[in-house]
Amino acid sequence: xxxxxxxxxxxxxxxxxxxxxxxxxxxxxxxxxxxxxxxxxxxxxxxxxxxxxxxxxxxxxxxxxxxxxxxxxxxxxxxxxxxxxxxxxxxxxxxxxxxxxxxxxxxxxxxxxxxxxxxxxxxxxxxxxxxxxxxxxxxxxxxxxxxxxxxxxxxxxxxxxxxxxxxxxxxxx
Length: 173
Fold this sequence. Notes:
This is Galactose oxidase/kelch repeat superfamily protein. It comes from Gossypium mustelinum (Cotton). The chain is mainly β. The chain has a single domain (9-170), classed as Kelch-type beta propeller (Neuraminidase), CATH 2.120.10. The chain contains no helices and 14 strands. The protein has strands spanning 24-28, 32-40, 43-52, 57-59, 64-66, 81-85, 88-92, 95-96, 99-100, 104-108, 113-116, 146-149, 155-158, 169-170. The chain starts with 23 loop residues before the first strand and ends with a strand.
């Protein structure tokens, strides 16, 4: 049986992320949870905070990287989608101010390095409030979605078929 247990500040060390909404928190393996972005008092964030499950420790890694505009990682955003595949966290879309975003990034959590990915195939248009579905068959009614085949290559397919591999499914904007 699984149940919730309230965590108190004395249960862990380090500095937890600030309160926020519209962020993502993805598990990396069985040892880390990576929190990215979100919205805090009308300010869009692009910070990374990691919880090390084994050591009960919050920390902020020093990230490197290069984007098309010279930035280290994704611009501040909320209401994006984040997906973990192996040691990589993929980020797509979201909102920053009044703009919907359509950029696609990957963070290698072994070396804490961001890379902006160029599209392969039919990249979804800019959108926010996106979702992800992983592994297995689903009997969902979707009138428009994109499928990212991460098993063999990074290839976006519009109206892809369901498969038994990890996939990013992005609904109509």
